Amino acid sequence: xxxxxxxxxxxxxxxxxxxxxxxxxxxxxxxxxxxxxxxxxxxxxxxxxxxxxxxxxxxxxxxxxxxxxxxxxxxxxxxxxxxxxxxxxxxxxxxxxxxxxxxxxxxxxxxxxxxxxxxxxxxxxxxxxxxxxxxxxxxxxxxxxxxxxxxxxxxxxxxxxxxxxxxxxxxxxxxxxxxxxxxxxxxxxxx
Length: 191
Description:
The structure is a single chain. The protein is elongated. Strands 1, 2, 3, 4, 5, 6, 7, 8, 9, 10, 11 and 12 form a twelve-stranded antiparallel β-sheet that branches. The chain has no helices and twelve strands. The chain is an all-beta fold.
């Protein structure tokens, strides 16, 4: 079973003053094994809205809301992050507990290299044609990696990330149309 996550992100940023920045990102996508035509159960629509405040020359406070599948039971949750920047503005550390941590280096005005630790959570809808059955697969992972951000201009950039998974958790929720008790929940298995 090979799982695919295909997303496209679009975002914006607006400075209200030298110290206040509002950013947003919309990330629609499909999560599937691609063994069936895509349908609405496999589509996801995520995003984030973050307000950043330049507290001092070297410290930023970020707060906002994120929509994704990181935490089971909710798709929207609040975030609070701190970003520390060196006095020469080349190095930064960003901490968003418990979501991620990042160390970045500005190689020049267009390129940033970074190391990152982060958590992910996704839900895939899988259909087995042979058995005429389907189930949900929830995956939670802790990853470590690196990336490169290239700025073409102040409005357009491209990023590339690679890494490895340190820890994974899989949970299967099997559809059970003929439950013995009408109030019973579908069976959940964890690995």
